[in-house]
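New here. Invent one.

***
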Amino acid sequence: MSVPKTLPSLLTTCYRNIFPAVRKELASWEEMAKTIPNDELRQQALASIEGKTFHCEGGAIYATLAKHNWTESIRFIVAYQTISDYLDNLCDRSTSMDPDDFRQLHESMLDAISNEPLTRQTNYYRLRQDQDDGGYLQALVDECQSVVQSIPNYEAIYPDVRRLAQLYIDLQVHKHVALEERVQRLTTWYETENDDVDILWNEFSAVTGSTIGIFAMVSYALQGVDYSAEVMRAYFPYMQGLHILLDYFIDQKEDEAEGDLNFCYYYDDETMTIERLKFFIDGCWENLLTIPDRDFHQMIISGLVGLYLSDSKVEQLNNGKELRQELLNHCGYQAKTIYWNGRAYRKWKEWKRLGQ
């Protein structure tokens, strides 16, 4: 597999190779999730796969950067993203507000990307009542380990991979504690960790909530090259920030109904929200100048904007259609093409679901 340089080649690769491979991997994990003995853990594992397949499909586009090892990359991306989505469900829907519990759960994400083979198994559920997942989370960790441990130059990229993973975990801990503690914890954390004066505390939190920088670095390493410095420069904060802010942007009504934290709430109004999204779009374009496969990464910008805005949830927002059009116009024709393609793909998936 070669790295796509044009939108038609990217779309062809996604529909012909990437998406079918992702669905095959997820089907296997879903079958295992169905056997989880604990009712709550089984319910959340299945819900995370059913409701967040889109995350794996989008992340797996980075498998093309692994070229001949693209199937190994997909194994890693699907397993790692499934851990992320599963734990997010457990923390979002948990009766626990214990930060130590959340950190213990997410220790699995550090184990999954460890540069050393695991010599022991950890009880990631140690601090919560629901315990028996039939080995599901450990199996996901082991799958990721089997991929990263096969990478000859993994030691070179590991510090940056671990940095992104640790920030992701810190975010999950801070944003899931008791509601009245969240903003204080997140703003204090921002003041400690952020060295980019151009972004706000809510934006830094969003930046750390993305896994795509990890996927890009691991995929390149599977190709046999170390582009971790170039990926960090391009993806942190701008590409990762755009990714998660768009996710929060379309989920505003849903998060409001569920009482979940949404980082777009902390903008003054809709105008500021759109202007800050444009700021991240522009930052993405400007920081891709030195990255290899620049055409591919530029398509990711258009893909993020087009695919997220193709979600019907946008139309539930106040002035949603107008805001969507403004962002599509700002991003350009590629984003518009991906937007229409995304709408068609979502309709096809719904048709397939109803036909089963």
Q: What stands out?
A: Residues 7-33 form the longest helix (27 residues). The two ends are 32 Å apart (CA to CA). Residues 309 and 325 are 9 Å apart (CA to CA).
